[in-house]
Amino acid sequence: MKTSWRSASLAASVVAVLTLATACGQESGTSGSSENVGATAPGSIAGVGAGSGVGAGVGAGVTESPGGSDAGAAGGAGELAISAATDLGKILTDGNGKTLYRFDSDTAEPPKSNCDGDCATAWPPVAADDVTAGDGIDKSLLGEVTRSDGTKQLTVAGWPAYYYAKDANAGDTTGQGVGNKWFALTPEGKKAKASGADGGSEAGLPGLSVRNDPNLGKIVVDKNGMTVYRFLKDKAWPEPVSNCNGACLDKWPAVAPVATDDTKGVQKKGLMSFTRSDGIKQMTVNCSPIYTFAGDKSPGDINGQGVGGQWYAVAPDGKLVGAPAQ
């Protein structure tokens, strides 16, 4: 029996759609790139829905204009040094003793800074010019990345390095833990953490795991123990699509890709990453894009639950927790 061209075309279309559905629904790992995009805001913004205006300074992790420091404004960091004079363990400083930081929303593979505008005012990038490795520092870990404005920024193990504008004196570490996104750099390029503090996956928490919340039941949390959310306006089929961009992404940072073997208690089917329309990679649970909330200040917070009637915590199987029937 001969097949008409219309039948053949229809069959091809069905195969294409099924291929997309399989790609979304299959058990899949990720590329391993780390980018929890969108700086968190320590200011009280609970109850703000997607798309409403929040200034870039808030998104950068500060609530007022920083002052009192021009760290990194001119020249390079000079000879880097290791300081152990804090409760953070060994951390990197520049030649003047100023603490160097890294940002969870950046990526190291490949190196990329996601801190611009007001964020870069609060967190001045460390210039790559004239930087040398001091005693105990592996010079092979030092590099540079070209920022969006064309300037060169120092990287440590691939992570772009910054100062914190509110560190007024040598040895200050007031930027540690700001917004649960900013951490002092160790000589190896990792996140410093205070003794006994939970430093995320580097302190033992998986990239994604499950917490039993007293109000919501079992919900997914990220490597820092922060509640993970879904956005009702997003799409999961036939492929993940995020509809949270711009100012929305400042308030609802996208969860970075996580390897499937770095999860615990989360359904493996549909656990995958995808590339957003802005080029950033984002994690999904059951193919739905997932986020954290800038209004959550500490692990266990659920301030994003039900915001705008659009944002809800995520169950281990990827379903919305406490959302009205759709």
Q: What does this protein structure show overall?
A:
The chain is of the alpha+beta class and 326 residues long. 11% of the residues lie in helices and 19% in strands. The chain contains four helices and 17 strands. The strands form seven sheets. It has a three-stranded mixed sheet with strand order 2-1-6, with no helix packed on it. Strands 7-8-9 form a three-stranded antiparallel sheet, with no helix packed on it. The chain has a three-stranded antiparallel sheet with strand order 14-15-16, with no helix packed on it. A hairpin with a 5-residue loop joins strand 14 and strand 15. 44% of the residues are buried. The N terminus is likely disordered.
Protein topology:
Elements: H1 5-25, H2 56-59, E1 79-83, E2 91-93, E3 101-103, E4 107-108, E5 111-112, H3 118-122, E6 132-133, E7 142-146, E8 152-156, E9 159-160, E10 182-184, E11 208-213, E12 217-222, E13 229-231, H4 247-251, E14 272-275, E15 281-285, E16 288-289, E17 311-313
Parallel strand pairs: 1-6
Antiparallel strand pairs: 1-2, 3-10, 4-5, 7-8, 8-9, 11-12, 13-17, 14-15, 15-16
